[in-house]
Amino acid sequence: MRELFPAKQVTGFVASLALTVIALLVYFLDMSFTVGMVVLLLTAFTQAGLQLVVFMHAGESPDSDSIYLNTYYGIFIALAIVFGSLLAMVWGY
Amino acid sequence: MEFFKQFAVPNPTPTIYLSMVAIGLTLIAVLAGITYFKKWGYLWSEWLTTVDHKRIGIMYLISALLMLFRGGVDALMMRAQTSMPGNELLSAAEYNEIFTTHGVVMIFFMAMAFITALMNFVVPLQIGARDVAFPRLNALSFWLYFMGAMLFNLSFVIGGSPSSGWTSYFPLAGNELSPHIGTNYYMIALQIAGLGTLITGINFIVTIFKMRAPGMKLMKMPLFTWSALITNLLITFAFPVLTVALAMGTMDRLFGTHFFTMDNGGMAMLWANFFWVWGHPEVYILVLPAFGIYSEVISTFSKRNLYGYTSMVVAIVVISTLAFLVWVHHFFTMGQGALVNSIFSITTMAIAIPTGIKIFNWLFTMWKGKIQFTVPMLYSLGFIPIFTIGGVTGVMLGIASADYQYHNTMFLVAHFHIVIIPGVVFAMLAGMTYWWPKMFGFMLNEKIGKWAFWNIAIGTCLAFFPMFISGLDGQARRMYTYSEVAGFGIWNLLSFFGALGLAMGFILIVFNVYYSARYATRDIGDDPWDARTLEWATRTPVPEYNFAVTPQVDSREPFWDSKYEGKTLFKEEIKDIHMPNNSGQPFIMAAFFFVAGFGLVFSLWPVVYVAAAGIAVLLFIRSFEQDDGRHIHEQEIRDTENDKRGETR
C-alpha cells in the first residue's frame, strides 16, 4: 500500500492549504504592516517553490538540471533587478 | 472631416507628401503585380501560412534588409543635415523624429530581425533538428514582429512619428511634453514586436534543450548554437521588463495613470531604469549571436577548429550574467550617489574580461591557420580591430567620473556605433554571405562583396571616428544644428562622407544579390565553403524536412569528421517523417494585433474591441483545434534525395 499512496502529493497539498490559511490570517488578524508583509512574502515564495517542485514536476524529468539552473538564474536576475533598482532609485540616490 | 484631422502628420513637408504618394503607388504596384502574375495562392500557401523555420528565417531576413534601408535613409538625412553648420535641410522637429525612428528601426526592426533570421535558419540545421520546437508559434513570432514593424513605419505617413529619442525617456515622452500621438506608436508597436521576440526566446530555448541530434551534448554544440541559446535566455529574462515598462508607459499616455509622471507620486526616472534593465541585456542579445557567427566563420576560413572552445562557452555564460548587472551605467549622471555609480562602474569594466577572452581566442584560432580571405572572413577580420576600439572607448565611458564629461556628447554616439556596426552589422553581413548558398542555392559574388566590404569598413571608420573628436570638443548629441564658430563643421562633413561610403556599400550589397541571382552558378554542391558543422551536411537547397535521416553526433565538428575522418553521420534507414501543418492563424492573429494597435494609438476604442475579440476568438479556436500534423512518405523522401543528388541545373 505504501507505494500506492501518493504521500508526497498529499503532503504537498496539505502544506499548500496551510500556507494559504496563514496568508489569509494577515487579513483577518490585526497585525502591523511590517509583520503582515513578512508573512505574505514568506508564504508566497514557499508556495511558489512548493508548486514548482511537487505539482509541476520540476525534479522528475531527465533534464531537471537545466530546469533548476534556469530557475536559479531567473531568481538571481529577479533579485538583481529588484534590489539594483532600489539601490539606484531609492537607497543610493 | 474633424475625425480625419487626427491622422494628419504634424510637421508636413514636401518630402513626406512625396513619400506618401510613393508608398501608395508602390503598394498599388505590388498588389497589382501579385494579382497580374496570379501569385496570391502561392504567396498564401507557401509563405504567409508557412511554419517552416527556413522560410520564416528568409522572411525575417528580407524584413531586416528593408528596415536596414529605412533606418539607413534616416541616418543619411541626419548626416546630411549636420554636414554643414547652420544647415536648414531639416527642421528641429523633423530631426527629432528622424533620430528617434533611426534608433528604433535599427535596433528593434533591423538588428533584432537579422539575428532572428539567422537563428531561425541555422540553429535547427546545426543541431540536426527538423524544425523548431513550436513551429506555429515561430510563425506567430514573425508575424507579430512584422506587424509591429509595419505599425511603427506607418507613423511616418499617418499621424506623425515619435520624436523623443529611441530611449523615449519620460517625462519628455509623457503627455505634457509629447502631446502628439507619435509616442503611442512607439509604445504599442514595440509592445507587439516585443511579444513576438519573447515567444521566439522561449521557442529557441526549448528547441536547443530538447531537439538536439543524438549524441550532441551541450558541450558539443557549435558555438553559434551556444550563443543562440544564451541570447534567447537573455531575451526571455530581459524582454518582460520592457513589456512591463511599455505597458506602464502606455497606461500613462492613454489612461491617465501616474507611473512616470512628475506629480501624484510618479517617478519619471523609473522609466530610464526599466528601459536600461532591458536595454543593457539587449546589447548582448544583439552581440552574442554575432560572436557566434564570427566563431563559425573564423574557424571555417582558418581551416582550424575553434581555439579555446570551453573558454568561449564560459565567456558567453559569464557575459549573460554580467549583462544584467550593469544597466545603471547608461544614466550615471542622473543623480544617484557615488557608491551606486562605483558599483556599476566596476561591473561594467568586468565585462571587458570575457569579451577580451573571446577576442584572443579568435586570434589564436587564426594563428598558423590557412586563412582564406573570403567576404565573410573579411568582415570578421575587420570586426576585430574596429570593435576593439569601440570596446576600449566603452571602458572610458564606464568610468563614472569621466562619464560626466562624455555623456550626451557625440563621443557616446561614436562609441556605440563603432561597437554595434562591427559587432552586429558586420556579423550579420558575414553570416548572410556565409549561409547564403544554403538559403538560396547560389553564392554571392566575391568580388562585388569585397568592394561592398571595403566601402562599409572605411565608411564606418570615416563616419564615426570624427565624432569622437567633435564629441570631446563638446558637440552634444541629438542637436539638429550648430554654429560655425563651434568648429564642428569639418568633423561632421567627414562624417557625412563616411555615411555616403556606407550607403554605397549597401547599394553594392543589393546589386550583388541581383547580380549573383542572375549570373551565379547553381552548381555549388552542398558544402561550398568546406565547412565544419551540421548545417552543411544537408542538401542544397535544404528540403523541408532538413535531414532525411537524423545525424548521429559524437564530436564538436561532426560534419568535418565525416568528411576527413571517415566517420558515418547518417546511420539509420530512411523512414516516414512527421511534419507540422501550415496554418493561416498566426498571420490573421498578427493582423488583428496590427488593427488593435492602430486603434490604441488613436484611441479608437470600437476598433480595439473588435480586433481584441478577433484575437480572443483565434486563441479559442487554437485551443480546441485537433492538428496532428502530416507525414512525408518514405518513398517521397527517397525521390527527393535522389533528385537532389543528381541535380546540376
From TrEMBL, chain A:
Its main location: membrane. It is an enzyme of class 1 (oxidoreductase). It catalyses: 2 a quinol + O2 = 2 a quinone + 2 H2O. The chain crosses the membrane at residues 12-29, 35-55, 67-91. It is a multi-pass membrane protein. The keyword Hydrolase does not apply. Pfam families: COX4_pro. It is found in: Cell membrane. The keyword Nucleotide-binding does not apply. Keywords: Cell membrane, Membrane, Oxidoreductase, Transmembrane, Transmembrane helix. Its EC number is 1.10.3.-. NCBIfam families: QoxD (TIGR02901). Belongs to the cytochrome c oxidase bacterial subunit 4 family. PANTHER family: CYTOCHROME BO(3) UBIQUINOL OXIDASE SUBUNIT 4 (PTHR36835:SF1). Catalyzes quinol oxidation with the concomitant reduction of oxygen to water. This is Quinol oxidase subunit 4. It comes from Salimicrobium album.
TrEMBL record, chain B:
The chain crosses the membrane at residues 16-37, 58-78, 98-122, 142-165, 185-211, 223-248, 268-294, 306-332, 338-357, 378-400, 412-436, 448-469, 489-515, 588-621. Pathway: Energy metabolism; oxidative phosphorylation. It is a multi-pass membrane protein. Residues 38-554 form the Cytochrome oxidase subunit I profile domain. Its cofactor is Cu cation; ferriheme a. Keywords: Cell membrane, Copper, Electron transport, Heme, Hydrogen ion transport, Ion transport, Iron, Membrane, Metal-binding, Oxidoreductase, Respiratory chain, Transmembrane, Transmembrane helix, Transport. It is found in: Cell membrane. It catalyses: 2 a quinol + O2 = 2 a quinone + 2 H2O. SUPFAM superfamilies: Cytochrome c oxidase subunit I-like (SSF81442). Coiled coil: none annotated. Its EC number is 1.10.3.-. Binds a copper B center. Belongs to the heme-copper respiratory oxidase family. Catalyzes quinol oxidation with the concomitant reduction of oxygen to water. This is Quinol oxidase subunit 1. It comes from Salimicrobium album.
